[in-house]
Write a structure and sequence with these properties.
3-stranded antiparallel beta sheet, two-stranded antiparallel ribbon, single chain, 3 helices, 137 residues, Pdz3 Domain, alpha+beta
């Protein structure tokens, strides 16, 4: 075996191993589904969309504040808690069909649920920044 062949084989055996990296982590099989919707009672309806978490599944597909949730798949929730419980019973990565009332129109969206993000820890204050160095030269 020539020196060139040996060094090429050596690089192949001991060089970096590049494996494809998935675009996103696979869904947690024990996780709970998440849409990223905050509700408000609009006109007495408890399923009015008040606001959406930026980048959450519901905001990515086009659900808007002011929409009213009519159904998720074949389930027609009657309360905010029933809606939350139903969505959380689905796993992240599951696709659900959400129908909303928008003015006089009804619109249907296909949404792939995400995993609910961990709660933010607000017990730690933001670092203090006086705007000038605290150390003396």
């Amino acid at each position: 075996m020539s020196g060139l062949t040996a060094s090429v084989i050596g690089l192949a055996a001991f060089g970096p191993c590049l494996a494809p990296v998935p675009a996103q982590a696979p869904p947690d099989p024990t996780g709970k589904g998440y849409l990223g919707i905050w509700f408000t009672a609009q006109g007495g309806n408890p399923l009015g969309v008040d606001r959406l978490e930026p980048g959450a599944p519901a905001s990515r597909v086009g659900i808007r504040p002011g929409d009213v949730i009519v159904r998720v798949n074949s389930f027609k929730p009657q309360s905010t808690q029933a809606m939350i419980d139903y969505v959380m019973s689905c796993r992240p990565g599951a696709a659900v069909e959400v129908e909303v009332q928008r003015g006089v129109d009804r619109k249907t969206f296909r949404i792939v649920l995400a995993a609910k993000p961990p709660p933010r820890d607000l017990s730690y204050p933001a670092p203090f920044d006086p705007g000038f160095p605290l150390e003396r030269p």
